[in-house]
Amino acid sequence: MSVLLFAENSQGKFKKAVFEAATYGFELAQLLGTNLEAVSIGQIENAELEKLGTYGVSKVYRIQSEEMDAFANTAYAAGIASVAKSVDANIVVMAQTYNGRAIAPRVAVKLKAAPLSGVISMVDPGNGFQTAKYSYSGKGVESFKSEKDSLVITVKANGFHVAENPQSIAIENFEYTPAASELDAVAKEIVKASSGISLTEAEIVVSAGRGMKGPENWGMIEELAGLLGAATACSKPTADMGWRPHHEHVGQTGIQVAPNLYIAIGISGAIQHLAGVSSSKNIVVINKDPEAPFFKIADFGIIGDLFDVVPQLIEAIKKAKVSG
Ligand SMILES: Cc1cc2nc3c(=O)[nH]c(=O)nc-3n(C[C@H](O)[C@H](O)[C@H](O)COP(=O)(O)OP(=O)(O)OC[C@H]3O[C@@H](n4cnc5c(N)ncnc54)[C@H](O)[C@@H]3O)c2cc1C
Question: Which class for 171: exposed (0-12), middle (13-18), buried (19 or more C-beta within 10 A)?
């Protein structure tokens, strides 16, 4: 029996969410008195695979074939299930990325396992694998148990800590050739949405909303983000109106973020927006309306006109940088 991590790579590189899922898998394996092994699919260098050893993986099975170079969720799920059966893993863990969400239910069906999606806490093996996930747009926490001890778990991005648990790692090739029927939907091209800092990985996010009045005013948001080494984000209406690209939209229907610092500028703080940002460690709100709901969850708030406040903030940061 072992715990198997699906270590998803993005164009040959691992993102933080994979190391979170690895940490989760390692801590679970420790509880069960077993090892954490991993499966990797697609082209990836040994040096990158070896990083998994830092986060608790003792062995990684590499599936590398031409058919599996591009993401194909049916084939990937079949490949992962095939490794899980071969190493007798009864628990598969992966990050709750877009691909993770697509693959996990298919793997669960193949392994006749219970899918636990978007978990934010360690399962309790002594108590029906009880665990928790957010519900009601992040307003509530739902706790639930599994009837089975065979599980496929997806770990919410930014929902669990990352810890180093160094292991010496072995890399072994695993032969898996997908059937033609498993290549029913294959990704043809991946176009990166922006060359800037990835929103889900950013330590600081500068986000703005309808209070900006129009897309022509976003220069100061980009300048502030540039000074802070931050990613930019926006509220849903500003993306819907075409003021900002859709990949910047955070919230219930957008991207979920949990940076160290989230700066919300001219955003009211509607529940659907908060669903995607309320796990941020520090929240700073700039809004001219003292009754704006965002202030209720803010760590720091500035009540004022953003067109006065943001330029002053930019100047203060520039001065602070010059004086070292
Ligand atoms: C099913 C559903 C899903 C949704 N999903 C999302 C989602 O994922 N993400 C999301 O963001 N929204 C989502 N929404 C929309 C959400 O309900 C809000 O309508 C939206 O978040 C409001 O965006 P906003 O704060 O930018 O705009 P507004 O609500 O118009 O707020 C603008 C704010 O700017 C302030 N302001 C105005 N001028 C200034 C100024 N000069 N200086 C300082 N402050 C100023 C105002 O006081 C106000 O608080 C969803 C809605 C539904 C129904």
Answer: middle
pTM for the full model? 0.75
Q: What is the pLDDT of residues 269-313, one digit of tens each?
A: 999 999 999 889 999 999 999 999 999 999 999 999 999 999 999
Q: Any residues with CB less than 8 A from the CB of 213 and at least 6 apart, and which?
A: none
CA dihedral angle for residue 73, residue 78, residue 84, residue 85, rounded to 10 degrees: 170
| Co-location of 239 and 280 in the same domain | yes
Question: Residues 98-136: pLDDT tens digits?
Answer: 899 999 999 999 999 999 999 999 999 999 999 999 887
Q: Which atom of ligand 1 is nearest to the CA of 271?
A: 17
Query: How far is residue 91's CA from residue 80's CA, in Å, rounded to a whole number?
Result: 11
For ligand 1, what atom is nearest to the CA of residue 254? Answer: 8
| Range of the structural domain that residue 302 is part of | 204-322
Q: How far is the CA of 173 from the centre of ligand 1 (A)?
A: 50
Residue 173 lies inside a defined structural domain of this protein: yes
Closest CA to 89 of 107, 70, 65, 116: 107
Spell out which residues line ligand 1, taking CB within 6 angstroms.
209-211, 235-238, 249, 251-254, 266-268, 270, 272-273, 276, 287-289, 292, 305-307
Cα(26)–Cα(99) distance, integer angstroms: 21
**In a shared domain, residues 146 and 289:** no
Task: Report the relative pairing of strands 57-63 and 36-41 from DSSP bridges.
Answer: parallel
Q: What is the distance between the alpha carbons of residues 17 and 163, in angstroms, rounded to a whole number? A: 12
